[in-house]
Amino acid sequence: MFSTLKIIVISLALLLSNVAFAKALSDYSASITELTIVSHGQRMSGLAYLAAGEGPHPTVLLLHGYPGNEKNLDVAQALRSKGWNVVFFHYRGAWGSEGEFSFRNAEQDVQAVLNYLNDEKNALQLRIERKQISVVGHSMGGHMAIAGILDNPLVKCAVAYDGANLGVKNSGFINDPKTAELWKEYSDSLFMLKGWSGAKAQAETKKYGVELNLINRVNKITGRPVLFVPANTRVIPMELHITPLVSALKATKNSQIFYKVIEDDHSFSSSRAELVDTTFSFLNSYCKDKSVLR
């Protein structure tokens, strides 16, 4: 019995010893930090995927779509492994964040998170290089990424994966009765978006279409780089949502607008490696100024 007990004690000691040695030897290992970010008095949940190394690191704000079933966290992990911080969050009213969801609220929420990341104290804690914050968004998040850079001169770059333009004219979501009814039914099913419905979606895009239309803001790009990655599906019709916006941005002074079609479904289900490589190549080439990094 003594011998059995002794073996157990020794085994436990070895286990604890291995746990101790398994701990990171550096204070700057890759890690994940939970965030609570306030937008208009309401709390939003988020995560910071922090890259290894003292930094500060270039940082991406990753924006999910409608309603956010595909979160693209494989992109977050991949970018982190290549030296980028990635911050992900849920808009007000989405997936447990406080408040009610709306498209215009989501635009405001992106700016609230950007302000949070640009705060000196927060940037120091999260090892963020404030001069190198970019936005990457998918679907509705693509709209939010372009709105994010247009509405904030401190944003370095933007990437839109098969991105929508929520205020686009002649969108089937608004005008085509059959399509509008399908989107209304789908929106009514989105229980993870608090206070939301198909009727509210239609009302907001109709009432605030001019305000939401990204083409009306293109002159605020001021030559900063933007990458569009359409999937060429009917979920986000390119000829309505993407091509006109690309053309308008290209017509601005000193434009740096890039475009790569990845033929796949709306979630790029069969092209994840290509999506990551395309994103990293763009960010590393145009959005990372090595002269300001320590």
Explain what the structure shows:
- The protein is α/β, with parallel strands linked by helices and 294 residues long.
- The protein has one domain (31-288): 3-Layer(aba) Sandwich (Rossmann fold).
- 40% of the residues lie in helices and 18% in strands.
- An eight-stranded mixed sheet has the order 1-2-4-3-5-6-7-8, sandwiched between helices.
- Strand 5, helix 5 (140-150) and strand 6 form a beta-alpha-beta unit.
- Helix 2 (73-81) crosses helix 10 and helix 6 packs across helix 7 (198-207).
- The chain is globular and about 60 Å long.
- The N and C termini lie far apart (59 Å).
SSE diagram, text form:
Layout: H1 2-22, E1 31-39, E2 42-50, E3 57-63, H2 73-81, E4 85-89, H3 103-118, H4 120-126, E5 128-138, H5 140-150, E6 158-161, H6 177-188, H7 198-207, H8 209-212, E7 225-229, H9 238-250, E8 256-259, H10 272-286
Parallel strand pairs: 3-4, 3-5, 5-6, 6-7, 7-8
Antiparallel strand pairs: 1-2, 2-4
